[in-house]
Amino acid sequence: MLTLLGCGDDKDAAVADTGPCAEAPVLTWDNFGAGFITQECQSCHGSGVVNRQGAPEDVHFDSKEEVWARVDRVLERAGGDEPTMPPFGGVVEDDRERLTLWLTCAEPGT
Question: What is the Cα–Cα distance from 33 to 100, expressed in whole angstroms?
Answer without folding.
Answer: 10
